[in-house]
Q: What sequence folds into this?
């Protein structure tokens, strides 16, 4: 049997405030629009920047945490998996690819040091005191 891996890791900034809603059964859903940027030199030696936008979907406790702690411009680290789905609009079949988040680290600038809050969908519960100092090797 062949093995496969569907894993996405993003570090970027929110382009808008999180969109929070709930299903009729009460399940929390939060969608984020995350920008990631890449810089390069063009043929003329001038620096250019390319920004890609990613739609991220968070469920249940991750959705609640994102809704409570994130806002436009927030720096986040997301781990998850890609999911492509289809829908129909104006009798045209459309496709959308989203990142289904499984882990979330929220970057917060502090006057003394950089702190992060880490939330994962695999944990039983989310501790309220999940802040911790981050060493210099963290990418943001």
A:
């Amino acid at each position: 049997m062949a093995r496969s891996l569907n894993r996405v890791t993003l570090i970027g900034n929110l382009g808008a405030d999180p969109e929070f809603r709930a299903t009729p059964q009460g399940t929390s859903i939060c969608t984020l629009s995350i920008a990631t940027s890449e810089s390069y030199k063009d043929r003329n030696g001038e620096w250019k920047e390319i920004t890609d936008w990613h739609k991220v979907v968070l469920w249940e406790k991750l959705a609640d945490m994102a809704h409570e702690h994130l806002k436009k411009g927030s720096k986040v680290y997301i781990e998850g998996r890609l999911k492509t789905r289809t829908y129909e609009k104006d009798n045209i079949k459309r496709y959308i690819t989203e990142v289904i988040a499984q882990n979330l680290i929220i970057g917060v600038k502090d006057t003394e040091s950089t702190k992060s809050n880490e939330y994962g969908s695999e944990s039983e519960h989310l501790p309220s005191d999940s802040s911790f100092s981050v060493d210099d090797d963290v990418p943001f």
